[in-house]
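In the previous chapter we treated chains in isolation. Here, by contrast, the input contains two separate entities that must be folded as one system, with a combined length of 815 residues.
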Amino acid sequence: MAKNSLGREIPAVWKGRTLDPYLDPWSRQPEVLRATRPLVRRAPGDSKLLPSLRAAIEACGLKNGMTISTHHALRNGDKLLNLLVQEMDAMGLRDMGIASSSIHAVHAEIIPYIRKGVITRIETGVNGLIGELVSKGELDCPIVVRSHGGRARSLVTGEVEVDAAFIAAPCCDVTGNLNGVAGPAACGSLGYAHTDARYARKVVAVTDHLVRFPAAPISISQSDVDYVVQIESLGDPSKIVSTTTRLTRDPAGLLIAKYAAEVIEASGLLKDGFSFQTGAGGTSLAVADLVHRKMAEGKIKGSFGCGGITGYFVDMLEQGYFETLFDVQCFDLKAVESMRRNPGHREISADLYANPFNRGAVVNMLDCVILGATEVDVDYNVNVNTESSGYLLHNTGGHCDVAAGAKLAIVVAPSMRGRLPIVRDAVTTVTTPGETVDVIVTERGICVADKHEDLKKELLRRNLPVKDIRQFHEEITQMTGVPRPIEFEDEVVALIEYRDGSIIDVVRRVKE
Amino acid sequence: MRLRRSMLYVPGNMPGMLQNIPVFEADGVMIDLEDAVPLVEKDAARLLARNFLRSYQDRNKELFVRINALDTPYAADDLREILPALPDGIRLPKADNPELVERLDTLLTEQEERLGLPIGHFKIIPSIESAQGVLNCVATAKASSRLVALAFGAEDYTASMEIDRTKTGEELFSARTQVVWAAKAAGVQAIDSIFSDVNDMEALRAETVLVKRLGFTGKSLVNPRQIEVIHEVFRPTAEEIRHALEVMDAIKRAREMGTGVISLKGKMVDAPVVTRAARTIREGVAFGMLEFDLSDEVIHGEK
């Protein structure tokens, strides 16, 4: 057991893996060659088409102990991962690993198969019940939480070896050219799957919309795909779009958005060439809306918007406030439609988006990002993985990647949730280190990291409620009271990997 | 001049909303113990409001409490619980006649004596919200020296008139005019009714522009999202301020020439024009838009 630089106790070895404690956001260097996959020769006339998932699993040569992956662009509408796990069980496969790009609430269906030993490890962050049960000790399944960039890194370096990637392909032809912009399960960008297509040992395109060759535009090409399987349905289109792509109407959320937009303006970054990322939460979208208006008023032409893309960013592209959108995931159908027809709306891989171990990711070019939090602490560390219950409930997404890349990382959150303060002495779990977080905006106060003395002065000059984070913490806890600390067992149930592969924190079993 | 552009109602029985009172940028808040609170929650609301007022030491806005009407069994309890927690004043609903305001004045005086406060500490804003209230409001506006503003309540007023309230508000025109006359005659502010469709910002803006033209100085509101629109309407524009400063400059030159009338860009500037310009400047100063030393001499000239 050693403490990392943030004071978090990290075991030396966990499940056979020697752990490298987190030191800082920048210094860890890659020391391996890029991973690779076997070359294959296909003769003209060879068919890749297989009749079923079972046939594909067999063709991939999956055996006990191997690892599969899927992508999460279908989000809570995804049926593929559940079907695969059922099929692997029916075939008698055991001790399998899942290295998908994310696990959503819909995948709670695999819980019985975890209990049964079909699935014994998850190499990705999880949203929902699986993480809760693992945190309670009711489900035995080690989890490694990775950011989007960190997951791409883990495949590119070969730290995670995917034996077979099953890529849900909303539109696909018989040779395996595929895209996400057509078909009943159209989800837009397939950015997360790009990495799998290049690094998994076998790649299977699974589609419910098989079209005549060629399926264009080509997002993932036939030169990377081993097999094609047609199934009845990839998922429920109504659940593929994110649920929260609407501006908040909550007055406190709107006030947070207003402050955040003022912070961006005061930072001096809002000028020609401005680049920007927000999530799809109601407050983030309200910030985007206000930034859009400020750009219109100031006749400011930005350069690019990035990340998960919503209709709000599409409007900004179409009105000329961005030249390009870099889209790793579409959050709504308007974004899907835009990617289909607008050449300025570019589909990018998770590797290009956020991998720290390549020759430069898009996040490094970002001016400003708006991020969320379940908790922050007086050192500006941010938690998005666990909640005040201590349960692992959310995946990291690109949180720590964009915070590290952007010039100005702004966390927006209400000052309290339920009856709990958002600012803590120390967050339950560190997702994103305080060294990469610049400003925390709540409806009751704006906290600015010490390294931004000029920004702090400018915000004060604008009569904004700038507060010292420790005093702000006191102020909020005076209203809420000090929450009773959560008690944990020693047992580590999940690792929180920083984007560079070092361990920034662990999740321990909650004492019930 | 105390700004009362935006007077936000917050239901007294909603702790989540009470706790956000310090955060919003309304000029004033009216914690509601009356219509927003169901009968079974009157006690709870009273205690919550009292505790909130006690804990809210670092006050950054004016705080009124809308008590229940004086002829209800709740009003006396409301006052007894609330006043020791020191609100700035009471919003009196259903102020149909001056006698009700006088009665409240007496009750407030009694409490001030009991609490050792200077007499006149608690202010009053009566709500004119019935036909009878409108007919009596000229006298009501002068019923107490505590009275700082006259408020118009269109929802109850239209109910008492047995008519529907429209978004364009033609049906309210006469009543609003009467309330503004009464307020101006008594030298107090006039606060217009709430606008209940919190998603229709354009209609809210249109109504606010209308009542500002009539002479109202502020509006009651039901949702913090409405604050910004209302403040925008009541804030003088930069153009209006520039013009007002030009008027001041022109009248100064006129007086130097020994006259009280001068032409500015082809329009006559005389005393009423100067008075209006002075009001614009006073508002601009109150809104922090400029600094200007506006003495009587500047407005009216040396005696």
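The longest strand of chain B covers residues 6-11. The beta strands of chain B are 6-11, 28-32, 62-66, 89-92, 123-128, 149-152, 189-192, 218-221, 262-264, 267-269. Compare these points with the single-chain example from earlier in the chapter.
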